[in-house]
Design goal:
heterotrimer, A alpha/beta (292), B alpha/beta (413), C mainly alpha (227), B: 413 residues, alpha/beta, Immunoglobulin-like, 5-stranded antiparallel sheet, C: 227 residues, mainly alpha, 2 domains
Chain lengths: 292, 413, 227
């Protein structure tokens, strides 16, 4: 019994480093073996997918990339999934960024997804990049009425008037969808408050899992759908796989979120296990102290 | 040319001056047009009005109209409306926008102030396009007062009034009841612990700049803590994420040391800048924590993803940790990992609480009354709207809607 | 007296003007908030020089005095100066100084961002996974009734975020579908958690109003130093 009591004490006050080791091992093993698990899409994610599916070819979609490298592991898969879906539907997409490093995220996505997988798409005709402007929600409020008040050139320095897909467009009110990827402020909430609701433009988006609870109030009245974190991105990829068989091939390219959910699922289970163990040892010790 | 112009009733016009064959042809043409117009599914919008959009900075004209009777919304015979604009009533008109079926107004935001504009609204349908009468002039003008925000003004006056009332009543001698805030009561104990152990006190003012109210609130708390640290003759370290925060924090701490009568103990090098980048900053702070092992850590300000990294590192070095933030998403992390957490408004009340000044304490009571107003409105609104739903009462529904809109910043004009 | 009076006056004047400007759509009041926001951005950008100067001074002192672990200060200073010089002079840019953007593909600045900054940032963010595990192990103990409820809710949310939650309760018939873990997890987040968040946010908004009024009116002067 003495040894058992000692073991219980040790486990109850387990050194953090053992926990880190187990979590690390869980992540590494599930990554090496590429464990993936089935994902059942939730209504909020399905709503975004169905909205994009319903848009006819040539519809205009604004894609704000409001995140930076810190949240890239969580948000990049959903950004890639959006862009692929829009490209498959032959929509016209317009990139923009309210975060300084968001522009780098756009460049990386264009290079990795559009240039590599859709080389037939031409800049200026099928997609373009407004680039980053400081001003946070002020930028959103201005481009809702007049894009040229802020943007006279695009991210590459080309005159806005020379871009064919901006011909006849003076503001974003005529856009069919605003599809954001946001990691904080400014982000999805600002797009809803300053463009979506006043301009009557449908808004949908993805955010980090931590932010998602703060955005639920906007669904479904002011937001078509919401993707919170890597799990939602995995659900979206699952929908893409079902609708577009071409994405079932290369897992590393087309199933990033699903692949990353493997370690996340395993880590969740490890955390649950630790919580259970911690509570069991705590209750045993509590009983012993009560009896003593 | 509209049908109205083509067939002027009861008047001799150009038809009487034409040769007979041409007249017959013209008559046939206009009759056909009349038949077509009668046979088309839509009629023009009526009572088109173009007026300045109220309560704005100008450069906006609202065009409103009465829907034609055949407009049954989406999927009906009316496909939408095209809005035409001209600088003169005779034209030429250019298209400036479109509205969906069922919409009875359009905001033209591409106009110049003090310039007259004339509008026509064209019904679009399967039978063709039917324009309305020309309406105007609509002249955009900027207004001096935004009457749409009257509710915000009233709420502001109420909050200001309550703050002033309680400040004055406390100055007059009335003792307010302020409940104990454990995190703030522990400040002296935490500083004392660090002094006894001979280890420094770490203060992290968040990662936002001086334009964030949380940073300002954090620095006001820093002033009080710095004074306590100065009195205990302990060591305070303040790594900052913004240059402006660094300069303000230096000023705050210097004045605190001066007020405590220990100006010589002040060392500006203990308040330093690390990086604007979130994770670079937290890496620097974490490195300091692991090396120097401060006995007490205060996290007061705006935090994001780095909150748990800071708190867990502080936990690993057995420091007493007191956190305060107004970021709802980060509060659970601080609550789980810190000894004391100031949640939301407690954080903003901290400065007043620590100072004990009547003027500051009055503002806490003012805050509380504002919250009470909010709670009463929520409860009343829920009860009223529930009763309206069950009792099918339009009056109650309107009262409930008014109450809901009163607290909204998007009150329609 | 001037040292404190002038800043107090500026604070009060600007504060009142901006509050009043919220209700006045007429130019120039309509763009005041945006204009002052831009003024602040300019000041903060210029103030960055102070921060950078402080960084160099602090680490420079450590290097010159050969304080403990001064080698890391060398890394900091060298890294800072290297990226600064590479960025300002567009060293290694394929298009040269005038021909391309500082972040052009293939530029040294872009390499520094892509292969140094990004991995470091992502690594720090990744630490959260480990810290969440250790914090959960320590914090989620059934010490009393509230803690037990928190523990149960945490289980439901954790399981609901994985396929295991759906699997464990997939046998529940549709008529009792509200007992399925994914449904419970969603309702907890969108109803209970959201309600709590809203209450906190109302308190925060009132706290911000109160603190702002104190600062504008001059009751709270701590930001200037002491009272």
């Amino acid at each position: 019994m003495g040894r058992f009591a000692k073991l219980v004490e040790t486990v109850n006050t387990l050194d953090k480093r053992w926990i880190f080791l187990v979590v690390g091992a869980a992540v590494v093993i599930s990554t090496i073996f590429r464990l993936t698990f089935p994902e059942i899409p939730t209504p909020m994610v399905k709503a975004i997918f169905e909205k994009i599916e319903s848009l006819p070819a040539g519809s205009r979609v604004l894609l704000p990339f409001d995140y930076d490298p810190g949240s890239e592991p969580e948000l990049q898969p959903m950004a890639d999934a959006y862009v692929r879906h829009c490209a498959e539907k032959k929509l016209q997409f317009y990139f923009i960024a309210l975060w300084p490093l968001g522009q780098n995220m756009v460049d990386a996505t264009v290079s990795r997804v559009l240039n590599a997988e859709y080389p037939q798409l031409a800049y200026g005709h099928d997609y373009m990049n407004f680039g980053y402007k400081s001003g946070n929600e002020g930028v959103v409020a201005v481009i809702l009425t007049d894009i040229k008040k802020l943007y006279t050139t695009d991210a590459q320095g080309a005159n806005i008037d020379s871009i064919p897909m901006l011909a006849g467009i003076s503001n974003i009110r005529s856009f069919d969808l605003i599809l954001t990827v946001s990691a904080g402020y400014p982000g999805l909430k600002e797009w809803i408050q300053y463009a979506g609701t006043p301009g009557n433009i449908p808004v949908a988006g993805g955010c980090t899992a931590v932010q998602a609870p703060l955005l639920y109030p906007y669904y479904p009245g002011q937001m078509v759908g919401l993707m919170g974190g890597i799990k939602a991105a995995a659900e979206y990829e699952a929908l893409l796989l079902e609708a577009y068989p071409k994405f079932r091939g290369d897992k590393t390219r087309f199933q990033t979120a699903l692949t990353r959910m493997g370690p996340q699922t395993v880590t969740h289970l490890v955390i649950i296990l630790f919580i259970v163990i911690g509570n069991v040892t705590y209750q045993i010790l509590r009983r012993r102290r009560g009896q003593a | 040319m509209t049908l109205h112009d083509a067939v002027p009733p009861g008047r001799s016009g150009p038809l009487h001056r034409l040769p007979t064959s041409a007249a017959v042809l013209a008559l046939a043409y206009w009759t056909a047009l009349g038949v077509l117009a009668t046979a088309s599914a839509q009629s023009p919008p009526q009572s088109v009005i173009a007026r300045d959009t109220p309560s704005d900075r100008g450069e906006n004209i609202t065009v409103a109209w009465q829907l034609p009777p055949e407009d049954t919304g989406a999927g009906g015979p009316v496909l939408g409306y095209r809005i035409l604009r001209s600088l003169s009533p005779a034209g030429p008109f250019e298209a400036v926008g479109q509205a969906s079926p069922g919409a009875a107004r359009y905001n033209d935001s591409n106009v110049e102030n003090h310039r007259p504009y004339y509008y026509q609204v064209v019904t679009l349908g399967a039978g063709g396009e039917v324009p309305s009468m020309t309406s105007g002039p609509g002249i955009a003008r900027p207004q001096w007062i935004n009457t749409n925000q009257w509710n915000v003004f009233v709420i502001l006056l109420l909050l200001l009034g309550f703050n002033i009332y309680f400040i004055e009543s406390i100055k007059a001698g009335r003792k307010p009841f302020i409940r104990r805030i454990a995190g703030l009561e522990a400040v002296a104990e935490a500083v004392g612990r660090a002094t006894e152990m001979g280890r420094p006190i770490l203060f992290v003012p968040g990662i936002q700049d001086m334009n964030d109210m949380q940073t300002v609130a954090g620095l006001t708390i820093l002033g009080h803590i710095a004074r306590t640290v100065a009195e205990y003759d302990s060591r305070l370290v303040v790594p900052t994420s913004r240059a402006l925060v660094m300069t303000t924090a230096r000023e705050t701490v210097r004045e605190a040391y001066l007020a405590a009568g220990r100006p010589d103990s002040y060392n500006e090098n203990t308040i330093y800048y690390i990086s604007d980048e979130q994770f670079a900053y937290v890496a620097g702070v974490n490195g300091y924590m692991v090396r120097e092992r401060p006995a007490t850590c205060f996290y007061m300000g705006a935090f994001f993803a780095e909150s748990l990294i800071l708190a867990e590192t502080g936990n690993s070095i057995d420091a007493i940790q007191v956190a305060g933030t107004a970021q709802p998403a980060q509060l659970p992390f601080f609550v789980a990992a810190c000894d004391y957490t100031l949640i939301g408004e407690e954080f903003f009340a901290a400065s007043a609480y620590l100072s004990g000044e009547p003027k500051q304490l009055g503002s806490i009571k003012g805050q509380d009354v504002g919250k009470l107003l909010g709670v009463v409105s929520i409860v009343a609104g829920v009860l009223i709207l529930t009763a309206a739903a069950f009792g099918h009462s339009e009056t109650l529904r309107q009262v409930g809607d008014f109450l809901r809109n009163f607290w909204s910043t998007e009150l329609a004009g | 007296m001037t040292r404190r009076t002038i800043p107090l006056f500026i604070t009060a004047f600007v504060g009142f003007v901006l509050v009043i400007a919220y209700f006045i759509p007429h130019p120039p009041f309509d763009s005041l908030r945006e204009d002052f926001s831009i003024f602040f951005d300019i000041i903060a950008s210029v103030a960055f020089i102070l921060g950078a100067g402080n960084l160099i001074k602090m680490h420079g002192n450590r290097i010159s005095r050969r304080e403990e672990k001064w080698g890391y200060s060398v890394v900091t200073v060298v890294g800072f100066l290297a990226v600064l010089v590479v960025g300002l002079t567009k060293l290694g840019n394929p298009g040269g100084f005038r021909g391309s953007s500082v972040t052009a593909e293939g530029s040294w600045f872009q390499y520094a961002y892509e292969y140094v900054f990004r991995p470091c940032s992502a690594t720090m963010f990744g630490l959260l996974a480990f810290y969440v595990a250790s914090a959960s192990f320590r914090a989620f103990r059934a010490k009393n009734l509230e803690a037990t409820i928190l523990l149960l809710v945490a289980f439901i949310i954790l399981l609901g975020r994985t396929f295991v939650g759906a699997m464990l309760t997939s046998w529940i018939p549709d008529s009792l579908g509200f007992l399925r873990i994914p449904y419970l997890a969603e309702k907890i987040m969108t109803v209970l958690n959201f309600a709590g968040n809203r209450a906190i946010m109302i308190g925060i908004a009132l706290g911000i109003v109160s603190t702002s009024l104190k600062v504008i009116v001059g009751i709270d002067r701590s930001y200037l130093g002491s009272d």
